[in-house]
Fold this protein.
Amino acid sequence: MQKKVESIQLQRNIAAIFSFVLVFVIIMIIAIVNAPTASGPRVMASPQTYFTEVRRTALPFLGAVAIGAIALGYVVARMVYQVWPNKIRRMTMLTAYGFLAPYLLVTMIFTIGVILFALYISFTDYDIFTSPAWVGLANYIKAFEGFVDPTQKDFVQSLYNVAWYSLIVIPLQTGIAILLAALLNTPINFRQFFRTIFYAPSVTSSVVITLIFMWFYLKTGYVNFFFSKVFGLFGVPWENVLWLGDPRGLIQLIVTAFGGNIPSTQWYLRGPSIAWMAIMAQNIFTTAPTFMIMFLAAMQDINPTLYEAAAIDGATKWQQFRKITLPLMRPIILMVVVLGTIGTLQVFDQVYLATSGGPLGTSLTPVFLVFSEALGRLGPIRMGYASALAFILAVIIFSITLFQRKVLERGTEQY
């Protein structure tokens, strides 16, 4: 009996040690593959030259990862040590992680490894072709220099732009989606046809939709043609607008109409530009139908007896919608608002294709700025600075999403 206990204990120790070593080795291999080094034919000529470069430039990165690998290896070894004596739990664990192994390896190599790489280089001056130089928090500080230095306002202006984008797009696309869902939830003729037509923009490629809207927004495009005809009915001349090239802000237009002026140094008082609002309109057109489907599914899941009881009590259709439909859809509204917020803060493809951040930076967004800095579109390649911007944006998105959940989730438990 004593020998059996000793044998089980030995097996537990061996399994725990093996698990620790396996996790540590895998993580370190992933770290070596994703190590921040200089690139180019000289470094990538052979494994030997690559490992030489890793030893020369990436030892701090590997050291930081090694500490994390030791901590994770200890957790895994502890779990294996506790589960190993129980045969059923042991087999369940081995089977589960055996099936998960391919996914975990891919995730660790191409997601976690890349995130660790990006986090490390965010504290360095790195242009891909030369070795990273440690600069500490300089990249993060530089991101917010726009508050005191107008010449470094790109990131601050991009946050300002997406703030306006979120404030305008999220309420409008959510409201339009609810109205469309309510319309399509009523017994009207050709309901399936209208559902298909309304949803079509959402399944069309964003690139294709953007190119179509760029055509609409030309000075000789259909948008100006439409306004010229509408204003012409009242005898008012219409001056064609270069929708995607006009930097004038909404508040600026209102102030100018009353004889005022907002100088360029106070760009933050001008509001969203005409170009930016044009992109907003396109985004609402393509995104609202997706949320419409979500709201439609939520409406169809509401028990119809609630409406019957309300009708017997004399409630009008509007009262039923306000007192029954909207409250029961609060969880879906929360999800739509959160998804809409994340989407608006990460807008990229429309900006890349239509305006490239212009005019005068009025359509510049954080994601487009990260892309431009990383690839050197605005000057020299600054991969470290781009990584810092990406992590700042991630923290902002997480914080806003958490706040929205705390506010909008109150009272949804009963639904």
About this structure: The radius of gyration is 28 Å. The CA atoms of residues 90 and 96 lie 10 Å apart. The first strand starts at residue 124 and ends at 125.
